Each structure stands twice: as structure tokens, then as C-alpha cells.
Amino acid sequence: MTTDQFEMTDGDYVPDPERDTALLIAGFFDHISATLQKQALPGELVSPMRKRHAELEAANAHMVVDEASRYNLRITLAVVAAYEKLLPRLGRAAATRAVRDALVEPLGEAVHASTRAMLDAAPDPFRAMVDVSKAREEYAFGKTFTFQRSADDDQRYLLDVHRCFYHEVLTANSATELTSVMCAFDGNWIEAIDPERHGFRFDRATTIGLGGATCPFHFTRTAP
Questions:
Q1: pLDDT averaged over the chain?
Q2: In sequence order, which ranges of the chain are alpha helices (DSSP H)?
Q3: Does this UniProt record's set of keywords contain Hydrolase (predicted)?
């Protein structure tokens, strides 16, 4: 089986939000089902979660302004729907941990492997990673995120997110505390970057979900 499930190594990567969202949500609810079993909770809770998910999508449809926001809304509200059902049974800390793990773990290995394969194959890993970031900004995030770039040259790509759609959706649905859950998914590709191996480092000191004013996504060369 290829290690590049997301087709990132061909040098012309374009995200497929529809495919990626379907994979993410399927894995999310499968993981939640396993969590229910481990916690000795009724497995049939997944059905009400999915029903609640559909209700939330309908109620928040006005937040969709482009295709990227349609899929990002769907992902975010799946987390909300599961959290609402788990909260009274597990408490805040355990329910948050459950939805975070369900979002991060199912595709974690595949995202890490695809990112590492892309970086290892690239003649210039720094430039390849910047190109992936720019493609995701355009196709996977779209108009509901606001980006500012303080540097974009051959040595640094310093991107700051000033508006986060995930955060806005969660705030609108009284679940602001889950923004950090959405941030956690990035660890899957961040951990694939090896500064000594790939010649650049990634820095994200904070995020809006962790209380920061912005989310810095900073890529800096560490070697010529």
C-alpha cells in the first residue's frame, strides 16, 4: 500500500475536501463507537449523534459561503454533535478527550505518512511544504478564514490566521472550548517535519483555540 494516500508527492497537490471530509467523518464516528464500547456506554448513541449532526448542519447552513466552508462546517458540527451526547455521560474533560482522539487518530498515520513521503521525495522540502500550505489555504479553507503573511520568500513563510471558521462555528453553537480540538488535528502533519532531515522548521507557539489572538503557521529554513 502506498504511503501517500493523499497524493501529495506528485508536486502539484490540490486538496480534495469532499473526499477528505468523508474519510474524516467516517473515521470519527467509528472511533466514537469504539469509545462508547470502552466506556461501557450504549453503542446506539451513535445514531442520535448522527441525527443531531444533520440537525446542526441544517441549522447552520447560513454560515456556508463557498465549498470549503460547506465541508469545514460538516466536520466541525460532527465534533459538536458527539460532544453534546458525551458531555452528560463523561463530563467535560473526558468528553473533550474523546472527540479530540476521534478527530485526530483515525487518519493520523495516513496524514503523517503522506506528508513525510512528500517531504522526503521533494528536491526542496521547504518549498514543497509552502506550496501545500498555499493550496490548502485556497481549496481547503477558502473565504471563511483570513490569512496574513508577514514573510513569503525563499527563507521564510510566515502565515498568521486572523479569522478561524472553526472557532466561529463552535462559538455560534456554544462549544467554543472545542476549538483546540480542531487545532489538534494539525499535529498529524506537523510531526512529519524533521528539521535536520528536511532543512526547515515549523513553529506554532499558540492558536486561537488556545487563547491566542492569531494562529501562527511559520515555516523557516534551517539549512541552505
A1: 94
A2: 17-38, 46-59, 67-90, 92-104, 108-121, 125-136, 165-172, 179-184, 187-190, 195-198
A3: yes
The span from the CA of 176 to the CA of 163, in Å, is: 14
What digits encode the pLDDT tens for the residues 140-150?
999 999 999 99
CB 220 within 8 A of CB 155: yes
Quick check: pTM over 0.90? yes
Provide the β-strand partners of residue 161: 147, 215
Torsion of CA 167, 170, 171, 173, to 10 degrees: 160
**CA distances to 12, 45, 135 from 131, in Å:** 9, 41, 6
User: What's the CA gap between 9 and 3, in Å, rounded?
Assistant: 10
Instruction: Render pLDDT for 103-117 as a digit per residue (tens, 0 to 9).
Output: 999 999 999 999 999
The rounded distance, in Å, linking the Cα atoms of 35 and 185 is 18
- Residue 149 CA to residue 78 CA, distance in Å, equals 31
How far lies 139's CA from each of 59, 67, 95, 111, 172, in Å? 24, 8, 31, 17, 24
3-class DSSP assignment, residue 150: strand
- The grid coordinates of residue 205 equal 507557539
Instruction: Output the nine-digit C-alpha cell for 218.
Output: 511559520
